[in-house]
User: Which sequence fits this backbone?
């Protein structure tokens, strides 16, 4: 038996592609996004009382991963990309039912032209992600201080140093739309978004990720990350 | 656009009906249940590594609630049943997409006749619940000690005293299948499963809930709960 679900809303985020998105929510608190409810769910009554919670669960669709075939084992990037674990022992987007689960900070509930927008922070979500459900984070149920985890027990421990070229700093200064853009870029790149399987031995290589409406370019050397420029798309 | 999902497994639990189920997971740790994976997902590879986690998320279908119409506001039982909040500010089963989310303790991963069964504890799930996904609980992401909640900030604070009639104790003694049945019944009833809107002013009333293959009967007076009997169905 199969069940059908209709999205109740959509994510608007600076991430226009998967590369560079932090691998779990909460790693980059500066990361601001919006959850825009869709009709007929976009009514203030449906979120009444939600403003009393500091955090919410978002159950969403991994919409860029739905067409790829399901495999019983995956290679999580946090394990270096070459150890395999069962798909149900991972948070990989390539799952039998591609439903994602992220806890994010709820900054504000806004009603605009009768519709509802939630301002959220720390979301590891692609722009355009369809949202299936929103639930309050209940500390007395969801907080389990005694929980143990197998692999990936901690946040990524080694952060790279991030420096900017003069050109990159100027371009950031000219980009008024994005609040705290320098700090956001620093936090995203210190997590080292390079694919684990690349071996990380290509110092000359220039990486690019689409952020907002530009292509963020950087490279990595012994001193850390150098942000080169915000190239137009 | 609508998305279709196929269950990956099913819950086997002592709860044959909704009445009496604890209102959140983890409230009754003695509560043992099984998650039985279905073909083609029921293979040891799909859960490899999961045994390293103490807790897992279960995303499931509120299958007894799917046919009721969606309403923008609900009356959570923890608020006494007469204050309404938005459906997205609640964990109510009556939601636009009836997808539930529960964290449970993972006791064991078993492979039986080539299929996979997870022994879980603390589940607030009805027998026969279709499971859509399993994910590991990652403490560094899912634990948010600083989270604040609006209503229902704590576990139910007032627990009822539970006593048993001689007849009930004898019946429990004759019921070998259920491990720790007396303790389980005590924990379920001290939470006071009576509907909030009943006013709780009917001391003579006998309540019944289906547990395993019997009907558990009790009443409530000034001293607390009296367990009367385990009636045959």
Assistant:
């Amino acid at each position: 038996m199969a069940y059908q679900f209709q999205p109740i809303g959509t994510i608007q985020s600076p991430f226009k592609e998967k590369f560079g998105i932090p691998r779990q929510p909460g790693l980059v608190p500066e990361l601001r996004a919006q959850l825009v409810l869709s009709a007929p769910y976009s009514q203030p009554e449906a979120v009444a009382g939600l403003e009393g919670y500091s955090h919410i669960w978002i159950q969403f669709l991994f919409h860029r991963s739905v067409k790829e075939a399901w495999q019983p084992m995956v290679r999580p990037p946090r394990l270096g990309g070459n150890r395999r674990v069962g798909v149900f022992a991972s948070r990989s987007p390539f799952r039998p039912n591609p439903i994602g689960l992220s806890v994010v900070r709820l900054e504000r509930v806004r009603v605009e032209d009768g519709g509802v927008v939630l301002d959220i922070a720390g979301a590891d979500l692609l722009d355009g992600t369809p949202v299936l459900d929103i639930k309050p984070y209940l500390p007395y149920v969801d907080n389990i201080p005694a929980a143990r985890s197998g692999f990936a027990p901690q946040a990524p421990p080694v952060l790279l140093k991030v420096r900017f070229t003069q050109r990159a700093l100027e371009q950031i200064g000219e980009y008024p739309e994005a609040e705290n853009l320098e700090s956001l870029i620093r936090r995203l790149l210190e997590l080292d978004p390079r694919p684990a399987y690349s071996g990380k031995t290509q110092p000359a290589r220039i990486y690019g990720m689409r952020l907002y409406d530009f292509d963020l370019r950087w490279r990595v050397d012994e001193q850390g990350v150098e942000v080169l420029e915000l190239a137009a798309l």
